[in-house]
Amino acid sequence: MKLTNVQSKLVLVFLFCLALLPLRGFSGNIIDTTDYSYWRKLAKTSKMFSAMKVSAITIANQGDGETRDVMGANALAYILDPANKRKYIQGIKDKFETRIRTMEIGTGAATSSVRSHELFYALLALDVIRYDLDAAVLSEYESWLEAKSMALVIGKWDPHGWAMRMLYYKYIGDETEFKKAKKEFDIGLSEHYMPNDGVSPAGNGYCVQRWNSIERAVKNMTPDIMEYMGYHEYYTNPGIVGLKEFMYGYAVAPFGRILLYGDSRNTESQKPWDIEEGNIILSPNIVSAARFSPEAYKYAMWVLREGAGVSEGVLKGHLSNYLIMAGTAENNNPIEFNTDDAVMAPSRLFENYAALITDTQSTDALYMSMQNLKGNTEYHTNYETNALALAGYGEILLRNAGYDGPNNDVTIDGVTATFDFIHSNSESANTLMIGGKRHTSKVGNGIVEGFVGQNIEYFRGSSSEAISGTHLRDVVFVQPSNGVNGYYVVMDHVTTDTVEDNVNVVWHPNAATLNTIQNTTEYFSEIKIEKGNTGPRLYSDNNVTLTTFLGTTPASVELKKTANQDRSGFAFVSDYMYANYNTNNQQADILTVLFPGDKTHKTGDLKRIIAGDYTGTEIIQEKIVDVALTSGGTSLETNKTESFQGENVVYRKLAGKLVSYFVKGESFKSEQDIQIGFKSDASVALYMNIANDVKGMSGKIISSETHVTFYSPDITSIRLDGENVSVDNSVPNAIRVKIPEGTYAIELL
Fold it and tell me: Which domain of life is it from (predicted)?
């Protein structure tokens, strides 16, 4: 069709107007040019965004450097300092010629997953300057990016390879291939967290490093890029939200260092931050956690301030960092960070992980965790069902094996920990075995019950997949209260499939030497560097100790040695305990007290209790006397003035008067002036804290729906979660009610 002059003019006007329109949607652009004015305004009005602009321009003016710095800084400077954009374009072009062109992609982690972050930064930079390049140059750069992105390994480290494919397809506007790659990326991503609670099956160290390292940017920042492009399913994904909260609140101790599960190479190099020169934050993940949840953000600020030691950090001037913190002009929801918002994570029970933490905002807080994965394991998962890790007073106290890379044996001072032992033998973890047999599965039945927020906190992990029998591991945290120190009680309830099998409980203190105070009873570890050793890595000057007290008498205790690997130079040979217990009718009930101490927190006096069908420990701290007992829970037992029927019993007395009690079972009675306690038709988990005037009690109860009679002076009513409960029967100082199924706050009034 022949165009008239008028039509020609209209076409020219249209093309001119088209040239002025934003480039969103043109050829699959990732970065929306309509955000540029919004981002420039932030650089003028916000101290944080202004500092990122200065950082970007400074790095760009330095010339060549790390690919991420050159690409990330020049791309951001191009947007925020358009008057000098030609200089920034040239910086990006030079890096394409000198690095992207010559980069080789291999099949190993260093040559594939590590290098992928360079392609990530290069793709974003090219997306910004693509319309300033000659067609031939652009085509050549795109061909390099395409070839190298498609060569990234998939099937082994899925998210990085699929992320780059997905982003490249978005860049070129191939929606069909983009959707296919997105599906695979989402699947690969989901392997790194439990879908319901976010716990990482790969191990705490692997989790925090991969999700916070600048070298894994294409994995850990692509969800943010997807959100920026309008795929609003990552910031609200329960698994990813939980992962962020898990990483910053629970994968690490209160002083910011990892608790060792799975692929955790060491506490020094695997950290939930990536910082250079003391306060320059390379990866934005720790400061952008607010995109996922307020809790993740507050915990991240705690780790940044108390773990990394950064009160006023500067986020490096990379385009991706700026984009994540600023978001889109349409949403107008920029985020900043302030370490004054820091909050240490409280105790919490996940489906696959439990964490009991001192109720105080301090890096010296005590922290015990248990891992019990219900599914979704992967290569980096170790055989650690019902395994425990412990930290306290600024140090790691109990550690699991960790990891030193695929097929790597570790030999230190003539002691070897084979890769098989580290990666595949449950004896390398703080867990329980039956008949000396290693776990045959990486999964258990999860954390099946528990409660937190009380002076006594509790959880139960269940395992029947990994062993030849069943294992219920109960942990009770006696919080620091009543003016005395806190500690943990571990009760293991085991049923074996085979009559001949014994039960083996393994403890790995984070110390070179395990000192025997009394054979088969009490052991003492000092978390210190021994003469001639280089480990463990210390984080305090507290002279921290751990007392391991065997409240149930073992048949024997073996002290063995292993090599604790640590790539950052703190490897050491350490003792570990292998305690053997006989069974009775194929059952065993085992109680162990783990009591941390330091120069200002004295360990209590511990005495073994053996009577009837129960065993346990008396823990004395000044005028406070605690009693911790375990049994099969099938018969009524008595200890001095207290009677009970339960698998676990922990009660406290002050100068002879009952202060509190916890029972997993059917009854507890303390013969005070007026009887205090309960009797249930079926087993419950119950904690009660007694008021100073012994009139009124409060606590927590877990019920499978049963009737319970409570005994307390002048009791008249009962509340569950603040609501009155109908009374079945009432007599002086006793009341009977029906407790529905569930976990409740309970008050006796």
Answer: Bacteria
What pLDDT was estimated at residue 695?
A: 72
Distance CA 631, CA 646 (A): 7
Burial of 740 (0-12, 13-18, 19+ CB in 10 A): exposed
Give DSSP secondary structure letters for 236-305.
T-HHHHHHHHHHHHTSB-TTS-B---SS---TTT--S--EETTTEE-SGGGTSGGGT-HHHHHHHHHIII
Task: Encode pLDDT of 174-226 as tens digits.
Answer: 999 999 999 999 999 999 999 989 999 999 999 999 999 999 999 999 999 99
Determine the Cα–Cα distance for residues 547 and 392; give it in Å rounded to an integer.
12
Q: Which residue type, as a one-letter code, is found at position 468?
A: S
Tokens of 254: 């209160």
Question: Is-contact 580 278, C-beta < 8 A?
Answer: no
- Give per-residue pLDDT as tens, 379-424: 999 999 999 999 999 999 999 998 888 888 999 989 999 999 999 9
pLDDT tens per residue across span 441-487:
999 999 999 999 999 999 999 999 999 999 999 999 999 999 999 99
CB atoms within 10 A of CB 90: 13
- Its pTM stands at 0.94
pLDDT computed for residue 566 by the predictor: 67
DSSP annotation of 544: -
Question: Average of pLDDT values for 233-259?
Answer: 98
Residue 534 pLDDT more than 90?
no
Nearest residue to 326 (alpha-carbon basis) of 41, 672, 622, 574: 41
pLDDT tens digits, 110-136: 999 999 999 999 999 999 999 999 999
**Residue 380 and residue 202 in contact, taking contact as beta carbons nearer than 8 Å:** yes
**The 395-398 sheet, strands edge to edge:** 348-349, 353-357, 367-371, 387-392, 395-398
Provide the greatest CA pair distance for the chain: 109
CB count in 10 Å sphere of residue 637: 20
Return left, alpha or beta for 27; rule: phi > 0 is left, psi -120 to 50 is alpha, else beta. left
> 98-114, pLDDT tens digit by residue?
999 999 999 999 999 99
Taking a C-beta distance cutoff of 8 angstroms, is the pair 552, 578 a contact?
no
Which amino acid appears at position 722 of this protein? G
Look at residue 11 and give its three-state secondary structure: helix
From residue 355, alpha-carbon distances to 119, 187, 250, 742, 744 in Å are: 38, 28, 7, 20, 19
Q: How far apart are the first and last CA of the chain?
A: 92
Question: Are the C-beta atoms of 436 and 454 separated by less than 8 Å?
Answer: no
Q: How many CB atoms lie within 10 A of CB 15?
A: 9
Taking alpha carbons only, the member of 232, 211, 234, 231 closest to residue 160 is 211
Q: Which two tokens stand for residue 40?
A: 């420039």
- CB proximity list for 738: less than 8 A, separation 6 or greater: 705, 706, 707, 708, 725, 726, 728
